[in-house]
């Protein structure tokens, strides 16, 4: 029956982990996948998460099904975290929100909702480059995927002129995907001033903004500061779509905790949108998983756990920033590596776009047992005091040829 099914290509990001696992060298480093590692290179379970689990265990909760849109306490608190307690649409009960299978599921619910209900041409513009999964998520949702310029290879920074020109040239009413903070894969974010200009263009062209916020707290160490773009757009009167993930900022990767929301005109419209979200979700997976949402809502709803969580998010962001400093100093001052490396320090969040070429990344895997995606993206969180010297020396050698 399946003799005509061709073998598909390996996933470009998860494939890196497979190559890493097969390597037996003790110096090997995996900088492919975007999962936080502590200073010993180990996965990190947040203390606030462990405490929330203790609270949950003590309360002996049942294992009944959740409603289709998930745990009500969780979705309420997730929306508050993103939009802010002062948000006008939240106070007006005009935000439709549902729990989702982490950020990926939120994007997929959003894609499906737009494909079914968005009353204009179903074209979505993604930044070039973007997270590799965005294209298949939106294409499989039934949207036409196009790109807008984002990254300038020459400056290893934002191509703001290209971005503005492409958004201005997009057909009116197109959907535009924006990374709310800590852009993946480039680590390059617009400034506040640039966000304000993007908001104006989106308004002028009547574009529909869809925010992907997978790293709230990871860019600056503060969940409020990282929500700037989302809150600014809402304050400017835009109606937005928003995908949230708690994979990174709570370290709940495999628990699959996320939320999808849409700001609407009023409570009656919100209720109609909520009803259609349920109709989309029911035949996909019926209702979402329980445990991770309970952990997240326990943390978000408890003053002490919340402030402990905030300081742990800041701790993760700060460790990454210190690795950026150390890598920059080692590459430039100690090893006199040719080229400009300022972007290592200026880029934001989990990732750095190193500017390493494909032959260089290949050489690093073969000679130095260092694994990263072929575009030269590294997860800064994979670096630590024990491996950063080996990494910097190997990069320096690869660049010197
Ligand atoms: N959006 C972006 C930009 C991401 O980088 C990721 C994770 N790599 C996600 C969404 C979704 O991740 P998850 O489904 O694990 O929440």
TrEMBL record:
Residues 27-394 form the Aminotransferase class I/classII large domain. SUPFAM superfamilies: PLP-dependent transferases. Its cofactor is pyridoxal 5'-phosphate. It catalyses: L-aspartate + 2-oxoglutarate = oxaloacetate + L-glutamate. Pfam families: Aminotran_1_2 (PF00155). The keyword Transferase applies. PANTHER family: ASPARTATE AMINOTRANSFERASE, ASPARTATE AMINOTRANSFERASE, MITOCHONDRIAL. In eukaryotes there are cytoplasmic, mitochondrial and chloroplastic isozymes. Homodimer. This is Aspartate aminotransferase. It comes from Hohenbuehelia grisea.
């Amino acid at each position: 029956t399946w003799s005509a099914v061709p073998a598909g290509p390996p996933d470009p990001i998860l494939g890196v982990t497979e190559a890493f696992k097969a390597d037996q060298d003790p110096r090997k480093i995996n900088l492919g996948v975007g999962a936080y590692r502590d200073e010993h290179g180990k996965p990190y379970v947040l203390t606030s998460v462990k405490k929330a689990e203790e609270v949950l265990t003590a309360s002996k909760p049942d294992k009944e099904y959740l409603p289709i849109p998930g745990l009500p306490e969780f979705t309420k608190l997730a929306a508050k975290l993103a939009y802010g307690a002062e948000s006008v649409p939240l106070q007006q009960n005009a935000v439709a929100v549902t729990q989702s299978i982490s950020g990926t599921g939120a994007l997929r619910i959003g894609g499906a909702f737009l494909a079914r209900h968005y009353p204009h041409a179903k074209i979505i513009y993604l930044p070039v480059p973007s997270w590799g999964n965005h294209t298949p998520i939106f294409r499989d949702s039934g949207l036409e995927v196009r790109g807008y310029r984002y990254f300038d290879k020459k400056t290893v920074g934002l191509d703001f002129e290209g971005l503005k020109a492409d958004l201005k040239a997009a057909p009116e009413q197109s959907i535009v995907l924006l990374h709310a903070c800590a852009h993946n894969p480039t680590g390059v974010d617009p400034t506040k001033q640039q966000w304000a200009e993007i908001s104006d263009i989106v308004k002028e062209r009547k574009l529909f903004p869809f925010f992907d916020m997978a790293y709230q707290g990871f860019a600056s160490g503060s969940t409020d500061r990282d929500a700037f773009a989302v809150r600014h757009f809402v304050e400017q009167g835009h109606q937005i779509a928003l995908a949230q993930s708690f994979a990174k900022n709570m370290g709940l990767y495999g628990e699959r905790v996320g939320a999808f929301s849409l700001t609407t005109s009023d409570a009656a419209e919100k209720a109609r949108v909520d009803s259609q979200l349920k109709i989309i979700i029911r035949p996909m997976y019926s209702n979402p998983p329980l445990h991770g949402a309970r952990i997240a809502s326990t943390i978000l709803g408890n003053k002490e756990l919340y402030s402990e969580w905030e300081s742990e998010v800041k701790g993760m962001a700060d460790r990454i920033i210190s690795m950026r400093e150390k890598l920059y100093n080692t590459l430039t001052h100690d090893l006199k590596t040719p080229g400009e490396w300022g972007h290592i320090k200026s880029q934001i969040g989990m990732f750095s776009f190193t500017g390493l070429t494909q032959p260089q990344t290949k050489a690093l895997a073969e000679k130095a047992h260092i694994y990263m995606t072929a575009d030269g993206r590294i997860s800064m969180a994979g670096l630590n005091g024990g491996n950063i010297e080996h990494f910097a020396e190997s990069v320096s050698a690869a660049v010197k040829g």
